[in-house]
Specification:
heterodimer; A: alpha/beta; Rossmann fold; Dimethylsulfoxide Reductase, domain 2; Barwin-like endoglucanases; six-stranded mixed β-sheet; 26 helices; B: 161 residues; mainly alpha; binds iron/sulfur cluster; Ferritin-like (chain B); Molibdopterin-dependent oxidoreductase YjgC (chain A); 4Fe-4S (chain A); Mopterin_OxRdtase_4Fe-4S_dom (chain A)
Chain lengths: 826, 161
């Protein structure tokens, strides 16, 4: 048995480029469960975008554990700490089990009829008085496809408001937009197997070791194997990924675009461009070359604060690659000039002609487990099945399938992003806001502002969730929702792998599946299509899936060849899957023909600086016709640079043990114990200047608020302060912290978003730091593993995830010999 | 020949626009995209003006400075009152009016570049043509941004506001 809190990635199973990734089945059962009596229900993990195939162990009507699915293409049996332990949240004693309604200032238990009656009454009132533009819906990245698609039809076709977004806006909106800008439609082109096949990895602002631990285990197995791929890492923190790098560029946050332009400058200057590919399969090269010509390494070095020689060395590695896999995540998506930067990563693979082939691809990675489905179903700012809201034919097609008038679907302007929905609520034009399975009172920037918006008398707030979150506490009606394992549905990971997750147990009390809640709402609101038939017309998840298949026919995310039957017990199937590709499609663009035909594309593109939406004629004038679009943009300084008053750069991020605002992971004892409380990270030189040592309490302050937490001195870049964004207020004794709201990282972040993807920029703000108390012998609660590993301190190591069984296929016993500990590396 | 006239017209138009962008951005500080992009675009206007400096000299008119920063205190004041106004229901109407005015000024600047590009061709000045063409492109993008923003704001203000 293994401690998988201490040993995050588990035993190594190294292999070479020509060998398959070995199977290693990870299993964790609650203590004392008789294994032979357990019933296993096939599912997949919903705690990050990797979507590892897993079986849920059920005993006496309760979930009692999980194991990885050996035959699953995503994980080959492995699970990470969140997957192994996170399921315990389902059994938490404080699950919401009945609806709550605000009465006399407090939330009181109510029946479903009372609660839904109130929701419907207020909806009707707002619709009569102000129309659909006064209605807003904000959902999650953790529901199932069927939940999202139902919501999408209810809101877009039924209610008819453009104010529908998902919290994927905070997570992968930039991935979505970068893919649309470069390749014409959403959908990551590559396969996870490309990590097994590559010879070079380019990792930008993506702490894979903590965000997708099983993917990192997969990469480690290559890094420890016979033909180790070369690794270039861009990250201001010394993450576990950075520690493995051949070249690590710890750039100043907010300067990604300058660096990426600089790398392209070098690729072009040293003729590392696949001219034939670029000429045949891209447009925009001239403009790109002209733009990046302004970014020689010396200039970039000054902007980014890293040596010019390191930039050259990185470009040399990328230029020498034969099978290059590039990947990026929040370090790009939540930072200054997000979409512009993400597009440059696409450009690098395009310049090198490395896309659509084994071991050659770019991943605009997802964060949340089911983010891909919000985008496909249109439960965020996209139009269902990767359609283009500016293309009247696409809208008409949708209207035909839904049997509503095309004008019913609001497409006169881009669908409203969450920050704008909150802005409308702030100025009073949105009066009804339904928040589904997400916690904006902790996860959105500038929390003081968010709380004040949600607390307004004139705004009616409905929250459906499994727990009483910080957001639910501000609601007028709270609806108890079923979680994963308590309902059936499908979801899709970042390499387009679709899984079916089956209901294993009943939801607690009166909790209901989100899809059922939306259907109930639709029936009570008497939503109908234009012939008076109920809208949506399905009743079960499977019926919904069949309807969704219909709406995807002929679109890039074609699900028509899939069915529950086919997915049941499969190892995951990648879309597109239609009658010609019944086993799915491993890679998009294998023929180097991209989805950029003007009539087919999902978006006509944007100006990367202003976010101005291009229109049909602008797109047509480019004549992309199946060629990828090389987008170019100049670097501009971030909006809130450090100043005399606020001399540090502030950035936020996650730890391996937690998920978002910890509504689930805080209720898994092993994960909670591994990272129980807020901390902030400082670089050694800064800590010394400030007189701060391990465990000292510091105050970090921005123009918007302040937080107080124990400091950990880590390998973060000098001048940068890091704070994890997981910690809110629901588990503090008085619902706040100390004398007020001084715990959540987003108290300090700025209200600002990327002009194209509208993703909030929570990775660049200016702060000041001061010490306010001595440690008193208590270390910071930060884990000693991964990126928060202490520098120059000997602390008790983070552990406490014992009882996990790892079985390596073909080995007689688990391979303890090649096991690594956290001590390994520099 | 009145080539200089076209050069100074373009300079004036960009300076006007820059001032207005800052003013509107600050007045609507509660609309963060307007605030930040307003300032970014105002700086861009300044760069356009400076790119014309050599041509102003070449054609005998006064070269204007590109800087149009608001005095610090004034900016802070406008921003603060912008944030307050941002909570009132009238904010929307004010926003729409300001965006409409802004788009008129932006259009004027765009036309100034069109004129300048024509003039540059007629006097066979390839350098001026290059600058005028590039700035005209920027001006067109600016216009599109404003259109996108107005398209988004108008229904909300006029139907739900
Ligand atoms: S890597 Fe992601 S999907 Fe896989 S087990 Fe961990 S949290 Fe779950």
């Amino acid at each position: 048995m293994v401690d998988r809190v201490a040993d995050i990635w588990g035993a190594r199973t190294p292999h070479g480029v020509d060998e398959p990734w070995p199977v290693r089945v990870d299993q964790y059962l609650a203590e004392g469960v008789p294994e032979h009596e357990v019933r296993w229900v096939p599912s997949a993990c919903v705690l990050c975008s990797n979507g590892c195939g897993m079986d849920i162990a059920v005993h006496s009507g309760r979930i009692v554990g999980v194991r990885g699915r050996a035959g699953d293409r995503v994980n080959h049996g492995r699970l990470g700490p969140k997957g192994l332990f996170g399921w315990q949240a389902n059994n938490a004693p404080d699950r919401l089990t009945e609806p709550l309604v605000r009465q006399g200032g407090t939330l009181q238990p109510a029946t479903w009829d009372e609660a839904m009656g109130l929701v419907v009454e207020r909806s009707r009132q707002v619709l009569t008085e102000r129309g659909p533009l006064a209605m807003g819906f904000y959902n999650s990245g953790q529901l199932f496809l069927e939940d999202y698609y139902t919501l999408s039809v209810v809101v877009r076709a039924g209610i008819g408001t453009p104010h529908l977004d998902g919290n994927t806006r905070l997570c992968t909106a930039t991935a979505d937009f970068a893919l649309k800008e470069s390749f014409g439609t959403d959908g990551d082109p590559g396969s996870l197997r490309d990590f097994d096949l590559c010879d070079t990895l380019f990792v930008v602002g993506h702490n894979i070791a903590e965000t997708q631990t099983v993917l990192w285990a997969r990469i480690l197995d290559r890094l420890r194997g016979p033909d180790r791929p070369r690794l270039v890492v861009v990250d201001p923190r010394r993450t576990a990924v950075a520690r493995e790098a051949d070249v690590h560029l710890p750039i100043r946050n907010g300067t990604n675009l300058a660096l990426l332009n600089g790398i392209q400058h070098e690729l072009i200057a040293h003729d590392r461009v696949d001219r034939e590919f670029v000429a045949a399969h891209t447009v925009g090269y001239e403009r790109l070359a002209r733009t990046v010509a302004d970014y020689p390494p010396e200039r970039v070095a000054k902007i980014c604060g890293v040596p010019a020689d390191d930039i050259r060395a990185a470009a040399e590695i990328l230029g020498a690659a034969d099978r290059l896999v590039s990947t990026c995540l929040q370090g790009v998506y939540q930072s200054h000039q997000a979409t512009a930067s993400a597009c440059q990563i696409n450009n690098i693979n395009l310049l090198r002609g490395m896309i659509g082939e084994p071991g050659r691809t770019v991943f605009q990675m997802n964060g949340q487990p089911t983010a891909q489905n919000t985008r496909e179903t249109g439960a965020d700012g996209d139009l269902t099945a990767l359609r283009n809201w500016q293309n009247p034919d696409h809208v008409a097609e949708l209207a035909r399938i839904w049997n509503v008038h095309p004008l019913q679907i609001p497409t006169w302007a881009p669908p409203t992003h969450v920050m704008q929905i909150f802005r409308h609520a702030e100025e009073g034009s949105v009066r009804f806001l339904w928040i589904v399975g997400t916690n904006p009172a902790v996860s959105l920037p500038d929390l003081r502002r968010i709380r004040s918006i949600l607390a307004q008398e004139r705004l009616f707030v409905v929250v459906s969730d499994a727990f009483l979150t910080e957001t639910a506490l501000l609601a007028d009606v709270v609806l108890p929702a079923a979680m994963w394992g308590e309902k059936t549905g499908t979801f899709t990971n970042h390499d387009r792998t679709v899984h079916l997750s089956e209901k294993a147990v009943d939801p607690p009390g009166q909790a209901r599946a989100d899809m059922d809640i939306f259907l109930d709402y639709a029936r009570r609101m008497e939503l109908t299509d234009k012939d008076g038939a109920p809208l949506p017309k399905w009743r079960t998840p499977e019926e919904c899936f069949e309807e969704f298949k219909r709406v995807t026919v002929g679109r890039p995310c074609d699900y028509s060849g899939l069915s529950y039957e086919k997915l049941r017990g499969s190892g995951g199937i990648q879309w597109p899957c239609d009658e010609n590709t019944p086993d799915g499609t491993e890679r998009l663009y294998a023929d180097h023909r991209f989805n950029t035909d003007t009539d087919y594309c999902e978006d006509y593109g944007h100006d990367l600086l202003t976010g101005a939406a291009y229109e049909r004629q602008d797109h047509a004038a480019l004549h992309p016709e199946g060629r990828a679009i090389l987008k170019a943009a100049h670097y501009l300084p971030a909006h809130e640079p450090p100043s005399e008053e606020y001399p540090f750069l502030y950035t936020t991020g996650r730890t391996v043990y937690h998920w978002h605002t910890r509504t689930k992971t805080r209720r898994a004892p092993q994960l909670d114990a591994a990272a129980p409380d807020m901390w902030v990270e400082l670089a050694p030189a800064d800590a010394e200047r400030l007189g701060v040592r391990e465990g000292d309490v510091v105050r970090v302050e921005s123009a918007r608020g302040r937080i107080e937490a124990r400091a950990r001195v880590t390998g973060v870049r000098e001048g940068v302060v890091f704070a994890p964004f997981h910690y809110g207020y629901w588990d503090t004794p008085d619902g706040v912290s100390g004398d007020g709201w001084h715990r959540a990282a987003n108290e300090l972040t700025i209200t600002d978003w990327d002009p194209v993807s509208k993703q909030p920029l929570v990775k660049v703000a200016a702060v000041r730091v001061e010490k306010i108390a001595d440690a008193g012998g208590v270390p910071s609660p930060a884990p000693t593993t991964a990126a928060s590993r202490p520098v120059g301190e000997d602390l008790p190591p983070t552990e406490g995830g014992a009882g996990v069984r790892e079985t390596v296929e073909g080995a007689s016993a688990p391979v303890e010999a090649v096991r690594e500990t956290v001590e390994e590396g520099s | 020949m009145r080539v200089g006239r076209a050069v100074s017209d373009a300079q004036e138009a960009e300076l006007d626009l820059a001032r207005q962008l800052r003013r509107v951005g600050e007045r609507h500080a509660a609309e963060p995209d307007l605030y930040h992009l307003g300032h970014t675009l105002a700086r861009r206007c300044g760069e356009h003006v400076e790119r014309l400096a050599p041509f102003a000299r070449r054609y005998g008119v006064r070269a204007r400075e590109g800087r149009t920063e608001s005095p610090h205190l004034l900016e802070a004041l406008r921003r603060r009152s912008g944030e307050l106004v941002g909570h009132s229901e009238l904010a929307g109407l004010l926003l729409l009016r300001d965006l409409r005015d802004l788009s008129l000024t932006a259009h004027e600047a765009e036309i100034a570049w069109v004129i300048l590009a024509q003039v540059a061709q007629a006097v066979r000045d390839p350098e001026l043509l290059q600058v005028a063409t590039e700035c005209q492109e920027d001006a067109r993008t600016r216009g599109k941004w404003l259109r996108t923003r107005i398209k988004q704001a108008a229904p909300q203000v006029l139907v739900a506001g």
